[in-house]
Amino acid sequence: MQQNDLDRTDRRLLGMLQEHGRISNLELAEAISLSPAQTLRRHRRLEETGIIKRYEARLDSAGLGFGVTAFIHVTMERGHIRDLSKFKSLVAELAQIQECFSVTGDIDYVLKVVAKDLKSLSDFLLDTLMRIPGVSGVKSSVCLDEIKCTSAMPLDV
């Protein structure tokens, strides 16, 4: 399913689910002005086609004791292609890494990492990240203030 296959009702359904992930099917049907059966069919179709990838609770990192968020730029050794699968699998296993993107430019990856404090971040960088085969350098930027953090997609654009 592509963006062009989504009609106005699908977009309204997705918008409601982004804002109210625990909404009941009946409440969702009322909000988008469809019958519960039609709403459920659309909802399931959006799940089956992969437009809805998963459901999750967004947790407060500071409330859980993670006082530091950092963005880490990772540079790989040239010819790192042999270590690429190992890097990806290790990154997937490390709970501190919330997001990882392969990017263009002078760096190879950008990671979003959470840590309890600066010492924990330093330990993670030196004892874990820098020891991954193929990693030649890291540069970190510590987040001073979170201005916007969302996973909501812009549905009206």
From TrEMBL:
One GO location term (cellular component): cytosol
KW Transcription regulation (keyword) present: yes
Annotated HTH asnC-type domain residues: 6-67
Gene3D superfamilies given in the database record: 3.30.70.920, Winged helix-like DNA-binding domain superfamily/Winged helix DNA-binding domain (1.10.10.10)
Assigned keywords, A-Z: DNA-binding, Transcription, Transcription regulation
GO MF entry, a single one: sequence-specific DNA binding
UniProt keyword RNA-binding, yes or no: no
One record GO biological process: response to amino acid
InterPro entries in the cross-refs: ArsR-like_HTH, AsnC-type_HTH_dom, Dimeric_a/b-barrel, Tscrpt_reg_AsnC-like, Tscrpt_reg_AsnC/Lrp_C, WH-like_DNA-bd_sf, WH_DNA-bd_sf
Superkingdom of origin: Bacteria
PANTHER family cross-referenced by the UniProt entry: LEUCINE-RESPONSIVE REGULATORY PROTEIN (PTHR30154), TRANSCRIPTIONAL REGULATORY PROTEIN (PTHR30154:SF46)
Protein name: AsnC family transcriptional regulator
